[in-house]
Predict the 3D structure of the following.
Amino acid sequence: MGELRDSKKRETRQRISDVATKLFFARGFEAVTIEEIAAAAKVSKMTVFNYFARKEELFLDREDEVKQLLHRALAERPKGQDPIDALRALVDRLRAEKHPFARVDDQTVGWWRIVAASASLKARVRDIGDEAVEALAVELAGPRADGLARLVAGMIVLTWRTAYAEAVRVFAGGGSARKASATFVELIDRGFAAVRGLADR
Amino acid sequence: MGELRDSKKRETRQRISDVATKLFFARGFEAVTIEEIAAAAKVSKMTVFNYFARKEELFLDREDEVKQLLHRALAERPKGQDPIDALRALVDRLRAEKHPFARVDDQTVGWWRIVAASASLKARVRDIGDEAVEALAVELAGPRADGLARLVAGMIVLTWRTAYAEAVRVFAGGGSARKASATFVELIDRGFAAVRGLADR
DNA sequence: CGAGAAACTTGTACTCGGTACAAATTTTGT
DNA sequence: ACAAAATTTGTACCGAGTACAAGTTTCTCG
């Protein structure tokens, strides 16, 4: 029932992605062309576009994971738990698991440096954030989410993004991983506290 | 001293901008090419790029105004006034002046519809917002702005953006201008209240 | 197994935003 | 009126992304 075909596709997709990642790390995002990636992956340019609709997806392939994590943290939270507490717990869980969304080390900073150097990657990251906001608003308030729900969702994502960016800044500026981590947690707590005040009433 | 040259330049720039705006309103942003704009303005494609570095600038030419307004509101505020109070006062001032950044009517909604229909325009709007956040953080905390300052600045801009977007949504969904305006103000007040809680301590 | 259908890949040719650069034109100061 | 400076233009180019038809591989089913 399409075993071989499927495995070949997965393999091809993975090969393209790997090759692209390696090239991007070596020379930056803008400096690598799709044609180069195609050649290095022994595939045609068209095939690259078959698997990845835009160039940015070759570097940002964890798009859905963001929404998944937020969704599951809320859906599977203990009965009666405040949504913001559930997200705060998610932060701790991801830190414990050394998940890249809640951790700053040489690898993630290297990754982030490449994003920061490319306008189109930065734009795409913001885009993913906006999608997460919308999804989160729906998660929090149902399909008829209102402005307040969107503001709450926006602040949660903003807090996460800002805390992460600040941790990267600290780490890249020579701070220890411990210090970067402390910065991350402190900003998360501050931001989430503000959101709690907003959601009440 | 270059009178004629300067006035010609201003005239040309204005003509290109006007022609582009008209075309964008008629057919949307993506559907209009730079070459068309150049032809309609009786100028070469290269000249268009001489005046506007990217296509998006042809539609979003109030970039600096955002930063200007924020800067002046803070710089010229009464001595001892809280920065957030100063920005809250700016909102009222802009509303009184019917400034498009704080007002929703047929014209501004038409303008937003075009932005919303174009991925690259939306990206550019977010970009401008991010620049405003950075500028605001510096404004609030000086050139050595820290994570908290950036979080505060981010929340202020997010609140404004969300309140505006929500007002547009209400208005475009058939709500009266009065109702849209009330939505705008309510979200601004909620968001700013949360920011006040964040900034203290 | 073999043949035709379905799925995937490829080449080609194209559009559009944007850049490089040198030639042509216009404006300016003298 | 003339040379220098600033502006505009044409031409040629690059890279992302699309359209489409033709080629190749894999699957399905008799």
